[in-house]
Amino acid sequence: MKRNRGRLSGWLMVVCFLLWPAGEADARALFQTDIEDAKQQEDSDAEENRLHHDLYIDGQLQTYGGYPVFENGILYVSIQAAVQVMNDKEDIDSDVPYEGESSFDFLEEHDYIEEVDGQEVVRVSQLQELGIRAEWLDNPGRLHLETADLLTVGNMRIGDSMEEVNDQLDVEWKTGFGKTADYIGFHGDMHEFTYTNRFGEERSGEVPDMQIEIINDNVTYMIFSSSDFETARGAAVGDTLFDVRRLHGSEYVEQTIDGKMVRIYHVNDGSLWFIANQEEEVERIGIWDFQIDGYER
Prior knowledge:
Blueprint: E1 10-11, H1 16-19, E2 21-22, H2 24-46, E3 54-57, E4 60-61, E5 69-71, E6 74-78, H3 79-92, H4 103-109, E7 113-116, E8 119-123, H5 124-129, E9 133-137, E10 142-146, E11 152-153, E12 156-157, H6 162-168, E13 172-175, E14 183-196, E15 202-215, E16 218-224, H7 241-248, E17 253-257, E18 260-267, E19 270-276, E20 282-288
Parallel strand pairs: 3-10
Antiparallel strand pairs: 1-2, 3-4, 5-6, 6-8, 7-8, 9-10, 11-12, 13-14, 14-15, 15-16, 16-20, 17-18, 18-19, 19-20
């Protein structure tokens, strides 16, 4: 699957996770134990699909309408998948060539619909011309279609340099608190954040509007606690987990940790973490450069 990074370095929800950086081993171990049984069942259910290429739209595995196919060196997806990703794109970006028009009708009018092995398909390159991101990955073969760059906040992206971050935000940088991080950056106002420690005691601390980690001059995570920021699909602090599901889909990993509900969406090359209270209101959102083992995309 995806490359394994030697470190996660970021946030972990065992006391320090919600307030200070922690290590990759902790983050992986936190989720791995309770999801092993579910993962084994998922692997069994998916075994019959191993010979096919997988298709993801905004990190969500598509199980309908066929698989990506190559024909004469050209990559295609089914008409159903093309219409789905076009509709999803229009949901967050009204400035599309087919605005207000049926996606299927648009494809038909522009002669984008072809036939391969008796199936109606659309070239991935033509979807890219409509502003849809696409990336093919090998071993195993899978295609990611994305309506937006899901690892962004505003004009900042996972992998940006410290200089690029400074061009966007006024950040106070500190060294990595003895962790693997080179720098931890803090931006904006501070907010009180409460959680329950491992002894069942309620604790609180302050978290900034935005916290950013830098390793080897690359942004490895961004965590925001202010509604001034939102994900590429429009989820923001203050939304409910119902809103998150509506915007980001129904396929995710979830646990309750330190009294918080943590929902993780795996997307191409990273993950999005939504941290919510018991009323299912999102209090913090994290965008990371890693994925939980066993759930890679």
